[in-house]
Each structure stands twice: as structure tokens, then as C-alpha cells.
Design a protein that fits this description.
The chain has 124 residues and is an alpha+beta fold. It has one domain: 2-Layer Sandwich (Alpha-Beta Plaits), CATH 3.30.70.100. 27% of the residues lie in helices and 30% in strands. Helix 1 packs antiparallel against helix 3. The protein is globular and about 50 Å long. The model has no long low-confidence stretch (mean pLDDT 92).
Length: 124
């Protein structure tokens, strides 16, 4: 019997970014990231922005960003915001390899957040 599940679009872009930086530069990286991150989370299209760090691969950071828009909008509008310039100028020399960007679309009805996850989250 065929599944009744369908992929319903939310119109929400999910960006998974992986950056590998020199582990000795973690404090400087986070200091440079903070202003750009704070600017992003105040954009009306930014719905979610999570930063994580690998405990087994020091210096490997993963960002999960959810935006109201599509990849074209992100590349043409969001990615060109001026507040990325100082962040990139400071952090690019810290990168070990290229950053990896994967764009996907959020699927309606398949997201969950437990209150325990949200306890240490900045909320609007």
C-alpha cells in the first residue's frame, strides 16, 4: 500500500554549514562570529540559527540556519549583508580547508523541539 506521506513545502530554507578552523583559534573564531551571528538572528527572515562544535574533532563547527526564503534569495540578498565582511576577513585565515554549505528545504510536520533543547536558547 502506498504511503500517504507527502513532502509539503514550508518555504523555509535550511542551510547546513561546516567549518573547520585551527583549534588553537577557537576563542578568536567565536569572538569574530558573535557580531555576525547576532546580526543574523535579528533578521526578520531568520527563523533558527544553531551553532555546534564537535567534541571529537576540535575546531569543527556546524551551523544549522533556517530562513524564510529560498536559496536564490539567500545567495542574492542575505549572503551579501555587510556584517559578514568583518567576520570573513578575520576568520578565513583560521579555516582549515573550504567551508561546506548544503542547502535543503524544511519539510512540514517533521520538526520537533523539546523544552530541554530550548532551555539554553535565545528567544525572541
Amino acid at each position: 500500500m502506498p504511503s500517504q506521506e507527502t513532502l509539503n513545502s514550508t518555504g523555509q530554507l535550511v542551510l547546513h554549514a561546516t567549518l573547520r578552523i585551527d583549534a588553537s583559534q577557537i576563542p578568536a573564531f567565536l569572538a569574530a562570529l558573535r557580531p555576525a551571528w547576532e546580526s543574523c538572528i535579528h533578521e526578520p527572515e531568520c527563523l533558527f540559527f544553531d551553532v555546534s562544535h564537535s567534541p571529537t574533532e576540535p575546531g569543527t563547527f556546524r551551523f544549522v540556519e533556517v530562513w524564510q526564503g529560498d536559496q536564490k534569495w539567500f545567495e542574492d540578498v542575505q549572503a551579501k549583508k555587510e556584517y559578514y565582511v568583518p567576520y570573513l576577513e578575520v576568520t578565513r585565515p583560521m579555516w582549515v580547508g573550504d567551508r561546506e554549505l548544503v542547502f535543503t528545504e524544511r519539510v512540514e510536520g517533521w520538526s520537533f523541539a523539546n523544552e530541554a533543547y530550548l532551555e539554553r536558547t535565545i528567544r525572541q
